[in-house]
Hints:
9 helices, alpha+beta, 2 domains, four-stranded mixed sheet, single chain
Amino acid sequence: xxxxxxxxxxxxxxxxxxxxxxxxxxxxxxPFAKLRNPILRKTVARVTSLRQAALVGGVDLAELIxxxxxxxxxxxxxxxxxxxxxxxxxxPAWFDANRITATLDARPLIKEGEQPLGVVxxxxxxxxxxxxxxxxxxxxxxxxxDKARKKGFDVxxxxxxxxxxxxxxxxxxxxE
Length: 176
């Protein structure tokens, strides 16, 4: 079976098709070593695209795609053919630290090899309108951010340190 490697390719599908690419991913970015954890492999890898993984791993998306393509004998693409999609920008108007009603430091969970997606999604469902949920992680939680945005949350994150990211999930007031 062949698979076209694109920014939207899911890591799980990629590794099911080309298991030898696990080592290539780990060499590109050490955080990808977490993919060796069977729980994360069955959960996170199934929903995480290469675009999201590049962001989490701090790897240039074009470099990631082209390195993987080369490893399986596919033709490279120009970096102009791979559009970067930023997840966050300047501090949004809705952000006010006084609106934070709940915080979860997911670093201990992640360190133990657990996937905090279910916990975070449950917590997000409990956030009242016009309030903010703060999530602390050792990397940008790109798949979770995408999922929250699809549920109607506004999201903004900032990098406080190399391994400390704070993501803010805002549930806007309903428009009547």
